[in-house]
């Protein structure tokens, strides 16, 4: 008996060792994918930086280019010798919109461009390699999961990825192009020249996009809580009014003090909350069906 027990312990140790070896291989593969993605992102760093700056610089240059170039000839004097200056025209844009201040980009020091390029390459490289990294993680974990657990993980991964993309797109194409011009035309005089530090502005934009990607994971968090019987659809419906007030306050705090900017953020959050209620009903119904069939 002691000898048989030793053999069982040896086999268990071998199995654990094999798992560690597989985990090491998965980590190495994921690391190589991340490094390759970082090199690819570094090669495209200039395009990525310009894309990240587009909601601020690109939009404002389009508004300010005619007035900021300073290459138009001065107004010519009339034939009777009287000049026709029009200083008031600089206060408004050619399209009739309020003029934005002239915007210039600058660096804080000589190493700032290199450090920024490395940061952008690191973030973008991990993002590019994330599908393969997630695949390696799932390949290691899935063999130990039950069929219903595998299905739940797949739903969470797919739903979380889609919601993250939606959140980033709303922030990039909806929030920033609306909020930035409002800030420029409301709080900064057109006569003032705005100098943006590129190595400080891009990290702020990245953090904002990341924040929206994380905030849009709210339905997935609700689904997990409902799946674990820590939350119910009835509770979500009961506290809907309180949730609406909280979301409205959050939207008002996180956006400039105007109704339009507030609604741009509030409407997606309200849609996500209602979607969470509907999805929670589906989760509860699915659990009941599995319980009737005697599944775990």
Descriptive notes:
The chain is mostly helical. The protein has a domain at 1-67 and 95-146 and 168-197. The chain contains nine helices and two strands. The chain has helices at 2-43, 45-68, 112-141, 147-187, 198-215, 218-227, 233-238, 240-254, 259-292; strands spanning 103-106, 194-197. The chain has a two-stranded parallel ribbon with strand order 1-2. The radius of gyration is 28 Å and the shape is flat. The two termini are 36 Å apart.
Structural descriptors:
296 residues, mainly alpha, two-stranded parallel sheet
Brief description of this entry?
This protein has 296 residues and is an all-alpha fold. The protein has helices spanning 2-43, 45-68, 112-141, 147-187, 198-215, 218-227, 233-238, 240-254, 259-292; strands spanning 103-106, 194-197. It has a domain at 1-67 and 95-146 and 168-197.
* H/E series: HHEHHEHHHHH
Helix content: over 70%
Strand content: under 5%
What is the average per-residue confidence, as pLDDT, rounded to a whole number?
A: 76
What is the total tally of β strands? 2
Which spans have pLDDT < 50 for at least 5 consecutive residues?
61-71, 76-95
Largest sheet: spatial strand order: 1-2
- Structural category is mainly alpha
